[in-house]
Amino acid sequence: MKTFLFTFLRFLVYAIVMLGCSMLIELDFKNGSANENDVIEIAQHIILLVIIIIGFLSVLTNKSHQVFMAILSLFITAHLIREHDAWFDFHFPSIGWFPFVVILIIISVAILIKKFKLFIEQTNALRNTLGFGILLIALVNLHVFTRFYGKPSIWKSIMGDNYLYQVERISEEAVELVAYTMMFIAMVELFFQVKKGINKSV
Q: Could you read off the pLDDT of 128-151 as tens digits, one per residue?
């Protein structure tokens, strides 16, 4: 009974999180705009920042699975930098955002070279957990589905002569927000999984 109540409570909390995500999307849909200062974009940045904080907090406070969580946090940080491409292009017009991501890649590779075996062991320990599964789905949504979903040719074939770039852009950004929200849920699950220090799924 206790397990059922905990599962139901977790479902309720995540349902509220996704509801909040849909409400933010609705706000931008009603405004009919698509730019860097819209609610969806701001929400994406905040969610990514929170994910990164949770990830590095896990690295600092939990001895188990530190390598996995560090690599994951650096990976998510690269996403946050990429989401701020306009800011980097404005403040660093000659180099943009890419060199900063390269720095994160170098750090990640250095960690993996030194502790690759440990990274594999920690990944295997977490691969059957709920958080890891949600993370994989979120990444596929973000890097595979969204890329095809946002193809201009698809939207032009749907809208024909009434094609509007804003509709395509805001719809694609909405899907990305859903993916980032799922990544947030995944990081929360992984944080508590690592904190428990157990290798079985919850």
A: 999 999 999 999 999 999 988 888
